[in-house]
Design goal:
Strand order of the largest sheet: 3-2-1-4-5-7-6
Helix content: 25-40%
CATH class: Alpha Beta
Number of domains: 1
Shape: globular
Strand content: 15-25%
CATH architecture: 3-Layer(aba) Sandwich
CATH topology: Rossmann fold
CATH superfamily: Vaccinia Virus protein VP39
Number of helices: 6
Length: 208
């Protein structure tokens, strides 16, 4: 993969209609299987301090946070109000299309951890979004970006659909490097050992 700054064409999508139209209908389903969900939850357990104020970015009706950890604050930002309202882990939620407006509606250093679960492939300006995440996290805070091999193909950006799983890891790391807010960028494969079930990959980092 070319690690130089990607051209605008890399972020084109087959369906360029407003995302608000596509996500208007709630999808109260999970997009990865139970083993992949368990891998996401374990990463959050490992990375997020129990006292963290958590930002669940591109959230839905489930957050996959460890059930035994009562984080003091969990804020979800997503595309569908009904999905967000149905999420029992959220103390607050906001409806916003990050492809229409990448500026997060939160003050500086408002959170201590951020998760982006199986959604990074839909961002048309991921570097700007990750730069904003850096702004709203306290220094040293973790971000956990997880993904599998599933997506809505009409809404995933072109570069994502052209790359292998291993190159998806490199691509997300590239986004973080370009954002300039992140240290300790780590690429992980948390797929089931026997190869049964959905693969699960992650890129983690710390707010510089």
């Amino acid at each position: 993969m070319n690690v130089q700054t990607l051209p605008a064409e890399a972020f084109r999508r087959y369906d360029e209609t407003p995302d608000s139209d596509f996500y208007q209908i709630p999808r109260l389903v999970t997009h990865i299987d139970d083993s992949a969900i368990a891998a996401v939850t374990q990463l959050y357990r490992e990375q997020f301090p129990p006292t963290a104020r958590v930002l669940d970015l591109m959230s839905s009706w489930v957050s996959h946070l460890p059930s035994e950890i009562p984080y003091p604050k969990v804020v979800g930002l997503g595309m569908n109000a009904r999905e967000l309202a149905a999420n029992p882990r959220l103390s607050e939620w906001v409806v916003q299309s990050l492809n229409a407006n990448s500026t997060l509606p939160f003050p500086d250093a408002a959170f201590d951890a951020c998760g982006i679960c199986v959604s990074i492939q839909y961002l048309t300006d991921p570097v700007s979004v990750l730069r904003e995440v850096g702004r709203v996290l306290t220094p040293g805070s973790p971000i956990v970006i997880t993904f599998s091999n599933r997506c809505f193909p009409t809404k995933a950006v072109a570069v994502w659909q052209q790359l292998s799983d291993q190159n998806h890891l490199k691509l997300v790391a590239h986004y973080l490097h370009e954002a300039g807010e992140w240290d300790e960028i780590t690429l992980l494969d948390r797929s089931p050992r026997q190869g049964k079930g959905d693969p699960l990959f992650a890129v983690t980092a710390r707010r510089a």
